[in-house]
Amino acid sequence: MEHIEYHPEIIGATTAMVKLRELVSQVAPTPSTVLVLGETGTGKDLVAKAIHQNSLRKNEWMITVNCAALPPDLIESELFGHEKGSFTGATERRIGKWELAENGTLFLDEIGELPLAVQAKLLRALQEREIERIGGNEVIRTDVRIIAATSKDLAEEVRQGRFRSDLFFRLNVFPISIPPLRERKQDIRLLAAHFLKKHAVRNGRKVLRIAGKVIKILTAHSWHGNVRELENLIERSVLMTPGPVIDQVFLSLEDQILDSIMVGNRVKTIDEVVREHVLQVLKLCDGKVAGPGGAAQVLQMPPTTLHSIIKRLGIQKVYAE
Ligand SMILES: Nc1ncnc2c1ncn2[C@@H]1O[C@H](COP(=O)(O)OP(=O)(O)OP(=O)(O)O)[C@@H](O)[C@H]1O
Ligand SMILES: [Mg+2]
Predict the structure, then answer these.
(1) Is 129 found in the same domain as 90?
(2) Burial class (CB within 10 angstroms; exposed 0-12, middle 13-18, buried 19+) of 133
(3) What is the residue range of 195's domain?
(4) Hey, which of 106, 187, 254, 309 has its CA 20 to 30 A from 279?
C-alpha cells in the first residue's frame, strides 16, 4: 500500500531528513507503535504530531502524557485512571489518558523517565491492549495507537537497570532517530529561512533575509539545543534587528545578558534601562539625591538634572512606595 503525504512542517533537505520523512510516511498509516529518539530540541514532538496527522486516526485525539512531569505515584493514575475511593484523595472516578485516547493516539513523552513500577503496568497494557483503572475490577479493552519519545539512550537505561528490557523491545518496534542539528549542518540555512519567515510574520515585521556572514557563523555553531535553539535565536534576531537584513549574530550574547536587555519578547527602551539604573542607585544611596553620597554625585550629574529624570520617569513615586 502506498501512502505518501507531504509534511511541510518537517523541514530538512539532508539525506537524513529525507529518510526521516519517508519513515514517517511509511509508519503513519499503520497501527504500529513508534519510538521517536533524539536529543532535546531535535523535533520529537513534531515527528509524533506528523505521524498522528498522517494516520487514519487524524480526526481523533492525540493525547500526550509527559512521563517526566509527574511524581511516580501520580503517573499511574494519569495513564490508567482510578475509581472513586481507590486511594486517599481519590474522591471521584478519573478516566486516564489511555482511555481518553481511545481510537486515537497516545503520545508518551520522556518515556525514559517512567518509574519502574509503572513500566510493568505499561508493558501489560501494550501487550494485552487492555487496561484496568486503579481500584477498578473491570478490564477495559482499548484501541489506542502508541507513540513514545525519549532523549535518553534507552538501551543504556536497560543496561543500568533503570528501564525494563521487555518494555524496551515492545516499544522499539519502529524506532525513528532524529539526528542532532550539528550532524546535518546543511539544513541550518533552510531551517533559519523557515523560522525567519515564521517570526517575521508573527511580529508583523519585514525582515527579509539573513546575511551570508551570519549564516556562516550559524553553520559553525554546535547547536546543543538543536532546532529549538536555532528557532529561539532567529526569533531573537528578528526582534533585535530594525532593518530588513539580519547582519549581526546574537549567538555570542549569553542568555543572562539577553535576559537583562529584554522585557517580555521585546528589547527594553533606553528610558526603561535608565529608570532601572537610577532606581538601583537611589536604593544604594538610601533615596538621597543631592549632597555628598547622594545619587547625583554617584551618577556624576547635577542634582537638578537627576531630579528632572526622576520626575520624567516617575521614579520618585515607585521608590517612595
Ligand atoms: N525539522 C524541523 N522543521 C521545522 N521545525 C522544527 C524541526 N525540528 C524541530 N522544529 C521546531 O523546533 C522546536 C522544537 O521541537 P520539538 O519540541 O519537537 O523538540 P523535542 O525533540 O520534542 O524537544 P524536547 O526533547 O526538549 O522535548 C519546535 O518549535 C519545532 O516545531
Ligand atoms: Mg518534546
Answers:
(1) yes
(2) buried
(3) 185-264
(4) 254
Number of domains into which the chain is organized: 3
Q: Give me the CATH number covering residue 189.
A: 1.10.8.60
Question: 12 CB under 6 A from ligand 1?
Answer: yes
Residues around ion ligand 2, judged by CB within 5 A, are 44-45
Domain final residue pick, 179, 214, 232? 179
The DSSP secondary structure of 206-220, one letter per residue, reads: ---EE-HHHHHHHHH
SS3 267: strand
Say if residue 124 is in the same domain as residue 240.
Answer: no
What is d(CA 88, CA 82) in angstroms, rounded to the nearest whole number?
11
On whether the CB atoms of residues 285 and 298 are closer than 8 A, the answer is: yes
Predicted confidence at residue 263, as pLDDT, reads 60
Q: Which residue type, as a one-letter code, is found at position 83?
A: E
Q: Is residue 6 part of a domain?
A: no
Please indicate, yes or no, if residue 10 is contained in any of the structural domains: no
User: Could you give the CA distance from residue 80 to residue 94 in angstroms, rounded to a whole number?
Assistant: 9
Would you say the CB of residue 179 lies under 6 angstroms from ligand 1?
no
- What proportion of the chain, given as a percentage, has pLDDT over 70? 91
How far is residue 230's CA from residue 249's CA, in Å, rounded to a whole number?
12
Same domain? For 86 and 212 the reply is: no
Ligand 1 closest atom vs CA 194: 4
Question: Mind listing the pLDDT tens digit for each residue in 270-293?
Answer: 999 999 899 999 999 988 999 999
Give, for 315, the enclosing helix (H) or strand (E). Answer: helix 315-320
Kind of pairing, strands 145-150 and 105-109? parallel
